Amino acid sequence: MREAVAAAASAVTELVGDRAGDWDRTGRLPEDVVRKLAAAGQLSAQIPADHGGPGWNSADSGEFTAHVGSLCSSLRSVMTSQGMAAWTVERLGDPAQAAELLPRLASGDLAAVAFSEAQAGSDLSAIEATVTVDGDSLLLTGRKKWVTAADYADLFLVVARMAEGGAVVVVPRTAPGVRVRRVADPLGCRAAGHADLAFDEVRLPLGSLLGGGRQPLPLLVTTALAYGRISVAWGCVGILRACVAAAAGHAGTRHQFGRPLAQHQLVARHLADLWTAEQIVTRACEYASRCWDDNAADLATAIVLAKYVGAEHAARGAAAAVQVLASAGAQDGHVVARAYRDAKLMEIIEGSNEVCQLILADHALSRR
User: Fold this and answer.
1) Can you say how many angstroms the Cα of residue 104 is from the centroid of all Cα atoms in its chain?
2) How far apart are alpha carbons 289 and 278 in whole angstroms?
3) pLDDT, tens digit, for every residue of 144-167?
């Protein structure tokens, strides 16, 4: 397995090359890059082998995610979206749906998971999108905001209300009544294909409901978020690794006052803190992935902890890297400039820092 991960990492390094800065500036990933990774199953590497996927465990998938995140957080965000979609199908879909959808997601089709709405961000219980049964079909109506990878997606997995519970509805992009509007100039992950979605009485087959629908809304949300959070956490490892490499490289070669920057103690402190942050987040992610692979009782808390620690350290670490590089790192498209903006989004998506703190505080109280 490790050899497969190393080979995939080498291939994606060659594929990205030095183009991530240009992708960030233009706000667009080349479709051939995204489709090539999707066709190789590398956007959703945990899809089981019996459904056509690589069948990697969380630890190996996480290391690969970190590597991609060190190259381009926008591309990593598309990976997170694809993995969330596949995991949601695997967990909530019936055997026929899994057999139909997972091979598609492992071989080239792109998917996005639509949660957020204008009044439903951290409080996803406020979701207003609805799906109803109308004879022998479904009607989906609602609006979704800031859906990662939606501008590239062939399929949308839409979380909506249904009767007294909820449902995840699989919606083809081409279905009549679906409208996609790209989010212009996002702060970070500029090329991740964020888009707002509108569903105007979209008529779909009854089989579009994963698992038949009418499940508890919190179950639907936490299922997808579990994968999203651990993927984002590993992505933060990648951000920190990129920042360590850029800051150390610059501080070791740039001279001020007759000696390398790295020999100035206050700069050395930044380097030490950056490396320490990368180590801390890596260990938190490794533990969360072990819990995932072992289906440990502490899994939910371990994932939230990794996401919280990862986002917080990535944001602080990216700021430190910009400080070390100064004007050299303040240029649009530079790796640490991208990291600075991308890391801020990590503190918001898949559960804001504040939401994570509340969850972790509840866990602490439960252990009294």
Assistant:
1) 20
2) 16
3) 999 999 999 999 999 999 988 999
